[in-house]
Amino acid sequence: MENLSVLDERRDPLLIAERWMKDGRTLAIATVVETWGSAPRPVGSHLVIDTEGNFEGSVSGGCVEGAVVAEAADVIETGAPRLLEFGVADETAWEVGLSCGGRIKVYVEPLG
What we know:
Elements: H1 4-11, H2 13-22, E1 27-36, E2 46-50, E3 55-57, H3 65-78, E4 82-87, H4 93-96, E5 103-111
Antiparallel strand pairs: 1-2, 1-5, 2-3, 4-5
């Protein structure tokens, strides 16, 4: 059986971003910067996304990843970072699945 720390390193979004950049991929990184209520990932959680829409990591346990990946494509293309907000009071609350009462802010920025 493989060492758990080796498996954790393979899944670490920051290490994956480093490998992807060495492979010549253009990336964006999404970082949880604020949460309130029942947000499933803590501040500092990361999601790394490439131009093909491949991603590793998590900013919400699946609730908003699709929306973040879509926004990341534009961030990569324009080079302009942005702050995304999701939550119950937001018009996308039911669309992205944060109907349980939480709010989350995710900062998406280009890498490299």
